[in-house]
Specification:
The chain is an all-alpha fold. Helices cover 82% and strands 0% of the residues. Helix 1 runs antiparallel to helix 2.
Length: 83
Amino acid sequence: MSSKQLRIVMRWGHIVGGSIVAAFVYSGTLRGFDAFVLATQVVVIPALIISGIVMWQLPLINKLLKQAGLKRDPRAEANEAAH
């Protein structure tokens, strides 16, 4: 998955997660459903926090992965495939 595709997926995940949190905060009727409250507090909010930190620090994460040899350069892969 390219960086652009990853950003698009993470952005839409943030929009959906933010909508769920907004519904949790502003809807009094949804707070009555224990499953919704638990899912929001245990799954959605931590996922938004973690994905937000990853989006913020993605250039540093990519740099560290590349230095550790865990991430391959897509341009190098394209050159290898062409030969």
